[in-house]
Write the structure tokens for this entry.
Amino acid sequence: MELIVSGLSEAFRMIIELDRDIFDITWLTLRVCILATLISMIIGIPLGMLLALKHFIGRRFLIVLAQAGMGLPPVVAGLWVTIFLWRSGPLGSIQWLFTPTAIVIAQVVVSLPIIISLTYAALQRLDPQLKKQLKALGPTRLQYGWFLLREARFGIVAAVMAGLGRVLAEVGAAQMVGGNLLGDTRILTTAMVMEVSRGNFDVAFALSFILMTIAFLITFLLTYFQQRQVIR
Amino acid sequence: MTLLQLEAISYQKQNKMILQVDELSLKRGDHIGIIGPNGAGKSTLLNILAMLEPPTSGTITFDGMKINPNKIPISLRHRTASVFQHSQRFDMTVFQNVALGLKIKGIAKNEREQRVHEWLTRFRIDHLSNEHAYNLSGGEAQRMNLARAFALEPEALFMDEPFSALDAPTKASLMYELKSILRERDITAIFVSHDLLEIEAMSEKLAVIIDGRIIQKGNVRDVLNAPSDIAAPFLHAWNQLKQGLDPGVQ
């Protein structure tokens, strides 16, 4: 119990005093997670739409692939990103391994299937009669896609929240491709693992509060946006 | 003058023939009812007429233009409107729902607002303008759908059992309003129903479709007075129903 109390008080002290290392780690975490989620949205939402609205050869295979990818263990994603970015790997020459860019790539790999699959599911759930009515109004392809996205926005925001949640919680891949280098690639989750292994529970507590606060605030904002749209 | 014509149309699904139409022509201002039992192919025929579903083979001509059913020009879609059985409500206000087609069509904001108000008033739902569409009753929602269709000022209006989900008083009042607007604006209307009473009230012409084929077509009175052998049992059943419900008929 004493461990918890002293850990908590130390954690609050570090947060209130705005510890430099913790600030850097938090700032990097925010940058990589938001960037990874944005990239996953930019790629994943159109791909989810394509799978939901177009029929083409290989579509079913891609749907299965995206849905299977939702269960992809982050360490496996980390392993493949590491192999590709390794000095002697196919993309070794660009020297991205152990940089924040590598973490972003690994996080995109784990969150992209979630955003694709949930966008696909959100659009699939729309009433086919509603799609027919929209088509009858004579929209351009862009208008058709836009108005369907608008109708499915509740599910799409949920897809983004799930993708963001995965990225914020992810540790295995970030550890593997980033290396947890202080001031360079250390993010909140990898720092927490390290501090716990060292027995520094106070620091781990502080990091966990920050991580939970970030997760809560972003999810709160997205949920607020989502609910504001459906209030009748 | 012919507005819409189908020639040698067939529609197959999973190698099963669903619809075969040798010829069907609609003149400008025609109000034609398509009637038939459940599963006869009425909605498929309407979807093909409305160019929402391409036929497997055959020719569609709209206002003298031969149409490639797999590549319908947007400008052509903007000359027609459709209303379906279950009122389609977009997740927005009533005003936005009615304005949607006009927005898609690129109508300027001022004109859009003026047309939406005109049709909301005409269908007596202007007081619901700012209401969310999901809060409307079935009758109000179908009024909204009709307002959306008429706001587009279509040359042809396709309706797939638009009254089937409505109670009798709502149905009667909407049918009356709809009929008077169609006459006033000289809009070609294609009306699908399995209810002969609705067809008689709404159309001057009738096509009877059974097992995917148009069995008989012509003026409503002519068809009802002299039904073909195949159409007779279906139409006779309706006459029996009408008489059975009329206490004056023994």
Q: What stands out?
A: Chain A has one domain: 22-185+216-227. Chain A touches chain B through 20 residues (CB under 8 Å). Chain A has a mean pLDDT of 91.
